[in-house]
Amino acid sequence: MTLDQIFSLCSLLAFAGWIALLAAPLSRIPLIRGARLLSAALALAYFVQLFTITQPVESGSFSTLAGVSALFSMPGNVMLGWTHFLAFDLFTGAWEVEDAGKIGVPHWAVIVPLVLTFLFGPIGLLTYGAIRTAHRLRTTGRPF
């Protein structure tokens, strides 16, 4: 497979998981499991990519910004990073939906955090955390 094909396949898997999470009120448990399964498939794709498409970069390292920039100067390494984000963000979204269901946050209140997690990762998680905290304060009088 070419990198473009891998990119398209991984992106399609992640998108299917996000659609499942947005539709979770229809059948919460199976759709969350489906999104988790897709996240696991992306994690497996990441593992395979790590040993097949990554490209060594002489000046690359994780200890400096210049070193990280050098690592991401190669298309295979960018694909690996993209798959990493897809897998983790989808897993985080699945956790948000599952957690919301457990503590009684209505699904409509999780839609914005899901979209933000899809687009901006940590900002979505932070937004869900604020909604979760507000809900707990309202229902129990305690933030945690």
From the alpha-carbon coordinates, what is the Rg to the nearest angstrom? 18 Å
What's the tally of helices? 6
Q: Shape from CA axes? A: globular
What sequence of helices (H) and strands (E) makes up the elements?
HHHHHH
Helix content: over 70%
Question: Keywords, please?
Answer:
144 residues; mainly alpha; 6 helices; globular
Describe the structure.
This protein is mostly helical and 144 residues long. The protein has one domain. Helix content is 76%, strand content 0%. It has six helices and no strands. It has helices spanning 3-22, 28-52, 65-71, 75-103, 111-120, 122-140. The longest helix has 29 residues, at 75-103. The radius of gyration is 18 Å and the shape is globular. 27% of the residues are buried.
